[in-house]
Structures are given as structure tokens and as C-alpha cells.
Design goal:
The structure holds two protein chains of two kinds. Chain A is α/β, with parallel strands linked by helices. Helices cover about 40% and strands about 30% of the residues of chain A. A six-stranded mixed β-sheet of chain A has the order 6-9-10-3-11-12, sandwiched between helices. In chain A, strands 2-1-4-5 form a four-stranded antiparallel β-sheet. In chain A, strands 7-8 form a two-stranded antiparallel ribbon. Chain A is globular, with a radius of gyration of 18 Å. In chain B, β1 and β2 form a beta hairpin. Chain B has nine helices and 19 strands. By secondary structure, chain B is an alpha/beta fold. Chain B has two domains: about 1-270, no CATH class; about 380-425, no CATH class. The chains are: A alpha/beta, B alpha/beta. The interface of A and B includes residues 55, 80, 86, 101 and 113 of A.
Amino acid sequence: MLSIQDLYAKVIDNSEDKEILKGLSLEVKPGEVHAIMGPNGSGKSTLGHVLAGREGYEATAGKALFEGQDLLALDTEERARKGLFLAFQYPIEIAGVSNMEFMKASVDAVRLAQGLPVLDAVSFMKRARAVCKEVDLDQSFLKRGLNEGFSGGEKKRNELMQMMMLEPKLCIMDETDSGVDIDALKVIAQGVNGMRSPDRSFILITHYQRLLDFIEPDFVHVLANGKIVKSGDKSLALELEKHGYGWIEDEAA
Amino acid sequence: MSSFIEQAAEYSADGVAWLQPFRQHARHEWLAQTFPTRKTERWKYTNLRSLDNDQFLQALPYEPGDYAACFNDSAIEGLGSYRLPIVNGQLSNSFDESTAPEGVSVVRFSDANHDQQQLIEDAFESQPDAKKHLFTALNAICFTDGLLIHVAANVQVEQAIELCFINQAKEQRTGSVHSRVLVVLEASAQAKIIEHYPHFESSVRTFNNAMLQLVVGANARLDHYRLQLQRADNIHVAGVHAELKKNALLQAFNFIIGGKINRLDYEVKVNGEGSHAEINGIYLPVNDEHTDIHTDMEHLTPRCTSNEVFRGIIGDNAKAVFNGRIHIVKDAQKTNAQLSNKNLLTSDTAEVNTKPELEIYANDVLCAHGATVAQLDKELLYYMCSRGIDRKSAEMMLSYGFVNELILDIRINAIAEYLRPMVQR
């Protein structure tokens, strides 16, 4: 599904380049759930944005193949159309564009690119309402401006709603658990677990073990100083919870 | 350019005798003016050089030709309005104005009875002077026949009254159109006026000098929609001058899509306790178009409120100017006046000049204003593209969202539906 090989990437901020990823490698096979943990500033979110194609997040060396194709050569929207989805840590707000309009434009674009029939307005509404209910948001959220005035938890559930509507092959979730209460976390986990399938993969970027109590990962990786320094199964997450990141960083150094 | 001033005065129209003193007065005022330059404060950012073309001076003659096709094509679907065809600035000769909704009189100035003449004369007397509104004076000199729309006291007109402006010419390629309309709502009347300048593919280039006066009586309510859709090479200079009496309510929405030069002066005299004015607008110049909006909110009496919200999206090499003046006189205590102007530039070569201008002489008022200029936010575009939406569509959706709030506020759904595709374009 996703093959990252010795990836280096920099972030261009105010014309100042900063190298963040320094030789990161990761293999994600269909159906797998990977958790990427690590201290602040280790490059977790950068990885998500480099994969999604954010401007100013530039790979300088290495490869990222998505289903065998060079992901880094594609425009942001092309990556999404091929089935990559990034659930944002901080979803943005757009006043004046309704949630529903936005999702329709997005789902239409993706389906069209994938050669699937575009849903007519009625079936789309029906599906959107059902998904809205699944993520436990009031139906009124469909009509509201995109994320406009949503609470942190509501925004995260809205990300999940988009993800469910788009049915991506690879879901990258950037700190979806931060800023949400336990009830919202359960809703999100339930949604993700419901979407797990042999041909869909997940990368969960998180600080905390808490999320992994609800979504059981196949692999846990520790990202430190721009590369993966340790990989293991879910027990690694428990160890991190107990001992912090210090011992791994020491081990890697 | 002073020759323009003199030459223009040569094209005076005659019209009815009882208006001659006003025309003479306006002529004197006009001749005392100098043509605006960059140093003229009210015209600082709008260059009128393209008017310096004597072809623009000659009025498009009124030709009661076949305007029916244009007229029918420009109908707003689902509006069901009472439509008045204004051809080259005048109500069409063949139009039977006796069909007006009950309580509404539609009267050509040339047909006005004594009382109606009085209303028209009062309006001329209260029109702003030429120093402030240059083209008002020219309009007074050059209009051929004006139109009075009178709504009797206590009459609530359900049906929207639409003035549909059509310019046409048989041979002339350029020319001027000076239209003049006076709307008077007597006490406790209610009406909706739609000033509609549809766009036609046409070979005639016009200098439109549109003058509208609104008098909103005590406890009356007027909804005013101004849809300026004439594009291309036309020059459109408009003055709207409204006066609100006690507890009157004016709700106005202006939509300006483009045109070579578009100038709107929207002036409201809030002149009766408890009255409220709400003036909104959207402007969308592209290519080399130029849009200039000056609003003037004159608070003359205590305990009145006003709210202005204008938003513009400026693309390509287009330019926009917004000047929002709020004037609160000493006696207008407890005034609450708000003004907001937001601009979105969608290209690096688009330009906007926005300026709120406050003159407050009362000490117990609330007055807030804000003006912003922004470009399309890269983070928002990234978010949208990350959902599979291509860059161009994302830009369009963002722009649309920027003005959509004002479209959503339009109370007449048929108008909102009519304008929506123009915003999405």
C-alpha cells in the first residue's frame, strides 16, 4: 500500500529551510494499522503533510510509493483522488461554504477520478445523513459552514465523517485523539474500527497510548529526530506510556 | 477636461416647463464644476478619462423599438415582479402604467398632477449638490422624462416592483443614458423596489448616469435591490439618495458584477427618530474592470441605527474602491452605526483601496467600522485539495463562501437564486 524508503524532507518556513525527516522508512501493507508515536517535534505531523502534499513540505531525498506509484510527484488533490486521506490535527474553518456542499464537491471529485458514478443529490444526502449519525453529530452540522464554530471534538468527528464519505484506501490520522473527550474518542474509534478492512490501511499519529486502547494497532513505531528508531507491536505503546520516550532516544543515540 | 463640463451642458434636455427652474439651477451648478482628477478627493482612485469622448455625451435617443425580447430574456425566474421597461432611460411609451399594483402610482414626470409635481420638486430641492455628487447635476440637466413611483399610506405592496433598464440603439454606437426615478413611500407603506440593469450582448456602449431617490415615510419599510449587471465597455455612474423618516426602515442590497467603470454613490439621510438603514453589497470586478463604491450614512436624528456590510472579490487586473462615510451630527445621540468592508484579492495584480471615514459630533454613540483586504488562504486551499478538490474549484468555492453569507441574507429567494450562478462563475 505505502512504501516509504529513506525519506528526507524539509519544511520551508519564511524562506528558512528546516530539515525534519531524516531517513524515514516505513512499510504499510493493505489492511494494517500502524501507530506512529514520538515526542513533540520529532516529525510526526510533518510526515502526514509530506504524504498529503502540503505546499512548503518538500521531500529532498528518498521515496514514497503509494500502490507502487511515486506519491511525491502528484498534486495534493491527485493523492486524495487515488485514495489517500489525511485527517488534520487542526481542521480549518471555512465560513460560507456548507459542510454538505464541501463534502459533495469532494466526494464527486474523488469518485469521478476513480471512475465511479457520481452520487445524485438524493442518494448523497441519504448517505451523508447516515454517516453524520454514525459520528454522533447533529444533522444540523451538515448545513453549517465547514467546521465553522465547531468545538475541537466536533471538528475531529467531522474529519471522521469526511473520511467515511470518501472511503479512502489509506487513512492517515494526525492526532485525532488530541483535544477530544472520552466519549468523542470512543465514537472516533468505533468509526475507525468499522472501516477496517483487508484492503484499507491506517496510520495513526498520536502522542498517547489512550487511543490505542480503542483502536488496536498491528504495529507501533517510535519516531524521533526525523526517523523511526524503534518498531514493535502494541506492547511498545504500553512501554512508552510507562517510561516515556527518553530511553528510546538514548538507545537510538 | 473642463471642455467636457461645457460640452455636456450643451446636451441639455427640455422636458416639462415646471421643472425648468431646477434644470437651470443644476446647469449653473454643473458649469461651476471642474472635471475630477486624481486630486479630487471623491474621485481619487477612479479615472474618468474614458468619458472624455464626445460620443458619450450624446444621449441615446429614445426609440420605442422592439425591446420586448431583451425585456423578456432578462426576467428573473420565480420573482413574479411588476416589471417596468425603462428603455434608454425612460419608461417605454407603450407601457400601460395603469396596471400598477393597488395603492401604487407609476407616473411619468411629464404626466404628474399638482400633488405629484410637488413631490418631485421637493426631491429636486433635496438632491445633493454638484460639489458632492457631480453627476447628479448632469443628470438633472440631461434626463428627458423621469418616473415617480408612489406608494400610498398604509399600503403593503406584496409584489416586487422591478425597474428593468434596457439600452438600445439603431445606429448610434455610443451614447449616454440619464435615468431618473423617484420612489416615495408614504407613512406605514411597504414595498420592494428592484433596480435591474441586466447585461445584453450589444454593440452599443453607454455612459449610464442613473439617479434614484428614495423617500421612506414614517413607519414605512422599503427593500431596495440594485442589480448592476451591465458588463463590458459600459460606464455606469449611479447615485442613490435615500431619506428615512421616523421609524422608517430601509434594507438595501447592491450587486455589482463589473463593467469598465462602475461608480455607486449610496447616500442615506437617517432623518427621523427610530429609523434604521441596512445597506449591503457585493462587487466582483474582473479583467480590467473598475468598481468604486462610496456610501454616505448621514445620521441626523437621535436613536437611529445603521449597518453596512460590503464584500468584494477582485480578480485579474481589476480595481475596487470602497469609501464608507459615517457622519453623526451633534443631535444624533444614541446612534448605533456599523460598517464593515472585506475584500478578497484573487490575483497578484488586483487592487483595492478601502477607507472608512468617520465624522462624529455626538458624544453618546456606538460606531464601529472595519475594513480588511485578504488573499486566498493557502491553508484553506490545501485543506480543500487534500479532499480531492482541484485548486481552481477550491479557489472558486472559497471566493463563493466569502460572499455567500450576504447572498444567504437576501430575503427574496428568487433574487438569491438569480445571483448565485454569477457569483460561482
